Each structure stands twice: as C-alpha cells, then as structure tokens.
Amino acid sequence: MDWADYLRDEAAKYRQLAKAAEDLSIKHFHKRYALDITLNLRGATKSQIERAMRGHVLANAELIGTYQKGDR
Description:
The chain has helices spanning 3-22, 46-53, and strands spanning 25-35, 57-68. It has 72 residues and is of the alpha+beta class.
C-alpha cells in the first residue's frame, strides 16, 4: 500500500465517522447538592469529594440535558 492508498483509506474512515457523529445524541449530566458544611477540596478527585460529602447532603437535584443535531 502506498501513501496515496493509505490517505484515501483514512479519508474514507473519517467520512464514515463524521456521518455517524451526525446521528449521535449527547447527554450532559448536572448534579447539585445542598450541604450542611462548606468543603475546601481544591484539586480533589470526584471520589474524594463524594467521600467528604457523605452524611452532609441536605438535598440534591439532577438535570439531564440531551443535545441531538438535526430536526428530531
């Protein structure tokens, strides 16, 4: 296989991926918590934050937004 063939194959793969991406829907998850303490965890991981929140959650809410390209 020469470079021209390789580049044609890669371009075909890219076109297939781009076409598939047009049909995807994307979900965004947003979580909010009301706590009875203030956390000072700058640079903490998600698991460290969740561990520090245990026993301090007064209320919580979750919003799931969906984006889909096109007329659907």
